[in-house]
Amino acid sequence: MERGFNNYYSIIQGGTGKTTTTANLGFGLAKLGKKVLLVDADPQGDLTVCLGWQDTDSLPITLASHLNGIMRDEPIPPTDGILHHQEGIDLIPANIELSDLELSLVTAMSRESTLRRYLNQVKQSYDYVLIDCMPSLGMITVNALAAADSVIVPVQAQYLPAKGMTQLMKTISRIRRHINPQLKVDGILLTLADMRTNLAKQTADILRQSYEGVVKIYRSQIPMAVKAAEISTVGKSIYAYDKGSKVAQAYLDFSREVLSNGEKQRAKHPPSPSR
Q: Which CATH number describes the domain made up of 8-268?
């Protein structure tokens, strides 16, 4: 399989286990034999910390370094700063410098495509690129959506932010119309789910009533589990930290579902080298 094309996913929507989902989807795809690059596109650096690099401020090269180089027409070697995790995935890290760079992006030429221009230099080495977005819609998130082929939307089962979901879908539609016509929503993932409760069941029902037939609702549901939240302190995947647990199995099932969707999309829409 030609690597790097039509498998860019932006994971968006804060407060829903977004970063944990990005990390464990990446690890899951790696377990299934895929070469995976994770991109931390949040100045808080939560994904970087989650993967074990606690002192983000000490990292000499981050996503901000690469984007700044492209804006200044002084790019640094594209693989510089990419971190390699012992469980077989790579990471482009982030720290607070990304927040300062976002202000510079506002006045940059081709400002929406800066991230895509960087990723185009490294994508050939990977089957999947997963971008952990900021929870708010700024220029970095717009860049992530401009670079992506698909969006994965985690939604917390205990609380359905209907207004936020509506606004997110409108934003994705605007990005599709004006910047990235190939962008689509791959699916909505129910997270932090305790399906024994009426509230979680009602949330799942509302999601299906509101979006089924328009947006895919993943069959996989990620159960609430303390172990899943603890992985950010140990720098491991849920598969290594709590092997055999229900949440580990749920994330692996979700990874298989995303992989299956990606392969179907590749079969329908062969990649264009110009992308």
A: 3.40.50.300
